[in-house]
Structure formats: C-alpha cells, structure tokens
Amino acid sequence: MGSAYVVGTFDTKGAELRYVAGLVGAGHPVVTVDLSTSGKAVEDVDVPAAEVARHHPDGADAVFTGDRGSAVGAMAVAFARFLVAREDVAGVIGLGGSGGTGDEQAAATSTTAAARIRRARTSPASHRGRV
After folding, report:
1. The pTM is what?
2. Position 4 pLDDT exceeds 90
3. C-alpha to C-alpha distance for 93 and 36, rounded to whole angstroms
4. CA-wise closest residue to 35 among 116, 118, 104
5. What HEC string does the chain produce?
6. Once rounded to an integer, what is the mean pLDDT over residues 110-124?
C-alpha cells in the first residue's frame, strides 16, 4: 500500500497540515512534505523543503532565491520531479495560502497517476464554523 502525501508550506500552515496528517494517518500511512520557500528548517516533517528543492534541475539554490514569486514557481518544478522519483505515492493532499505553493501544478505535471490534490487557498479563520 502506498502512502498519502500531505504537502504544503509547513512554516506557515504547519498546524493545519499536521491536523490533516493526523486525520489521514488514522487509517493510512502518511508522508509529510514541506514546500516552504523561506529556507527556514521546519521540524517534525518527513521530507524537508531542502530535500524537495534539490530535485529542481538547477538545484536548491534555484528555489531559495529570496524572491517569493520565483521561489514558488521553482518549488513547483522541484516538487513535480520529487513526486516522479517516489514509488510509494497513493495520493496527495495539499493545503496552501493565497500565495500558492505550486503543489497542484506539480501534481498535474507529474507522471504519478495516483497524485490528487485538494487545495485550500484561504486562511483557516475564514473556514471557522464550516470545518
């Protein structure tokens, strides 16, 4: 059985991503993947952003540029290549903010047929009472 990949920017959405990982993990193996582009290390993830960024054709430095726009696009490229390299992906669920992390583009370009994305693009506060 493959794993459910819970992906997103753990530096800003860590609590929400860990919550989803806990729900999914109650019945399925989970791999947490950080897609943060800040360059800050995040604890308690299975795959840190630096590992994903190394899959970019121009290396991790192409992702951690300090420019949010180029960094997000570069992380999408890196994540697509990361997913293709994995053999245990049963599905993907991604949560992100209004800036987007590119995870849905990466999954769409991935040859991993099982990759699926569910994306929340607004703040958790805007969902209060509906979740």
Report:
1. 0.79
2. yes
3. 15
4. 104
5. CCEEEEEECHHHHHHHHHHHHHHHHCCCCEEEEECCCCCCCCCCCCECHHHHHCCCCCCHHHCCCCCHHHHHHHHHHHHHHHHHHCCCEEEEEEECCCCCCCHHHHHHHCCCCCCCCCCCCCCHHHHCCCC
6. 44
